[in-house]
Amino acid sequence: MMQWLVVFLSAMILAACGGTDTEAPPEAETEQGDSPVDTVAQEKGAMIANAKTHVYTIYTDFEQGSGFLYNDQGDILTNAHVVRDATFISLVNSDGQEFAGKVIGISLDEDLALVRVEDLAGKDPLEQEMEPVDMGTPVIAIGSPENAANTATEGEITNTGVDFSEVFVYIDLYEMNALIKRGSSGGPLLDASTGKVLGINSVMLEDNPEIGYAIPLYLKKDLLDGWAANPDPLP
Fold it and tell me: Is 81 marked active-site?
């Protein structure tokens, strides 16, 4: 039987730009602007930096995982296995600020949970992709692998419509080669071209750790919006 690990890894994106001087009279110099490659790298770096401000490291008395701001009500989306049976939930943002949260919706079948953080109400979430994407879509996974907060990895969608069923029931997953490790469960999978959230990084196979799987967000919107509209705080 396949063993499951739930996960995330890190990568930094550096952008460099510069100009060169050309021979000219002392009073006149020409400036060379950013190359197209530099500009693309800078834009991607800015997109990742912005996304990280919406991603949180989650701590409970049993697990460490990740989550991201789902709506402007202060709700953090994560995996159910990160917060189930927790007697406390603490969330830390990219600036090191700590917040308390409470579960307002959870599905132990679909491995999803919504955690409300009242102090985050009014903060705008990242844009979300509400249509399926194809194989080959470039992606960025963000989370806290092995408690290493604010880390990101790049890859692409390598398959779609993948189903698994063991501890949880996973349907129509995105398969990707953006590396993930234990501790990043619940972090967002972004479209590297648009910056929109595609899914929730949730699982990888122990015997093939270079491949990860994310739950497509568009498939779960009705469930999540129902929890947000009718919160049911667990004891």
Answer: yes
